[in-house]
Amino acid sequence: MLGRMKVGVYVDGYNLYYGGRGICGRGVPGWRWLDVRSLADSVIRSNSGWAGPFDLRVIFCTARIKESGNSTSQHDQDTYLRALTKHAAVDLVELGTYVSRVATNPLAVQGPRGRPILATSDWPIMVRDNAGGNVPDATFMASVARREEKGSDVNVATHLLVDVLGGDVDAAVVISNDSDLKLPIQIARDHAPIGLVNPTKGYPAGALNAAPTVGAGGHWWYQLTAQDFTGAQLPSPAAGLTRPTGW
User: Fold this and answer.
1) Which of 111, 132, 142, 212 has a Cα at 20 to 30 A from 71?
2) In the chain, count of helices (H) and strands (E)?
3) Element (H or E) spanning 83, and its range?
4) What distance in Å separates the CA atoms of residue 221 and residue 126, rounded to the nearest whole number?
5) In a domain, 247, yes or no
6) Does 111 lie in the same domain as 62?
7) Closest to 148 measured CA to CA, from 98, 200, 95, 94
8) What is the tens place of the pLDDT at every residue in 64-100?
C-alpha cells in the first residue's frame, strides 16, 4: 500500500482501565497515566504484520464518574481526559453515561473461569422456616449498590463501523475484550483488516475469535502485559497537566 496506512483505533476506556488494574495491580502506581496513542502504535508495530508507516485515529470511549463522596476520582479522571486530548494522545473522547443504582442479586462466589457459583444455606449457616424446620439450599439475596458505565461498547461499535464501512480507514484496532462487540467486529472484518487487543488478564472472549483470513484478511490478536502499560506513559506534566498522586 502506497503512502501511510490509515488505522482507526477504538478503545473501551473502562475495559482498558479495569484490565490494567487486574494486570498491574490495584494499588500499584505507574500504569494509569497511559498514553493511548503510544500504546496502540507500539502494539500495532510489534504484532500486526501490517505495512507501515501508520496514521492513527484514536477514539477513546468512556463515561465521566458521577458519584457523591468520590470527588478525588472524579478530579483524577477529569485531569486524565484533558491530558489525553491536549497531549494529542487521542483524537476524540466519546462519552457515554455513568449510572449508580441499587440491584438485588443472589450471593455467589467465583468459580472456574470467573463463572458465579450461588451460595446456598448449609451448616454452619442454615435458613429455617416459620415452623423451625431447616431449609437447605436456600438462596441468599442481597441488595447492593451498582455503579457502571453505559454506552462505551455501543460507541466503540458505532465509530468502528462508520469508519470501516465509509472507507475512512484502511484497517482498525479494537482495544476491548467485550463479547458484546461480536457482531460489529464480524462485519468490520469483511471490509478491512482488524486487530483485536485484549486489555484484560482473562481469556480472550471466544465470541470475538475468527480465522485471520476471513473476509478482508490480515486480522490479528494480542493480549496486553504490564510492560505494555508501564512502557506507554504520558509525560508529567503533559500539556501542563500533572499525573495524579498514586497514578
Assistant:
1) 142
2) 6, 10
3) helix 71-86
4) 48
5) no
6) no
7) 98
8) 987 655 578 899 999 999 999 999 999 999 999 876 6
Q: What is the pLDDT of residue 1?
A: 43
- CA distances, 228 to each of 49, 214, 246 (Å): 18, 28, 19
Q: Looking at the 3D structure of the chain, how many domains does it have?
A: 2
Residue 240 lies in a domain: no
Same domain, 135 and 162: no
The whole-angstrom separation of Cα 7 and Cα 54 is: 7
| CATH number of the domain encompassing residue 213 | 3.40.50.1010
Angstrom distance (rounded) from CA 23 to CA 181: 22
**Model confidence pLDDT, tens digit, residues 23-63:** 999 999 999 999 999 999 999 999 999 998 999 999 999 99
Which among 53, 56, 26 is positioned nearest to 175, based on CA atoms? 56
Q: Nearest 5°: phi and psi at 204?
A: -60, 140
Q: State the cell numbers at 166.
A: 465509509
Q: Both 91 and 166 in a single domain?
A: yes
78 and 159 within one domain: yes
Which residue(s) pair with 146 in the sheet? 101
Same domain, 42 and 126: no
For residues 92 and 51, state if they share a domain: yes
| Residue 81 cell numbers, joined | 481526559
CB atoms within 10 A of CB 17: 18
Contact (Cβ atoms closer than 8 angstroms) between residue 247 and residue 33:
yes
Cα(247)–Cα(234) distance, integer angstroms? 11
With residues binned 3-state (H G I as helix, E B as strand, rest as coil), the percentages for the chain, rounded to 5, are 30, 30, 40
The domain in which residue 123 lies consists of 102-144
The three cell numbers locating residue 201: 488478564
Residue 57 in grid coordinates: 485515529
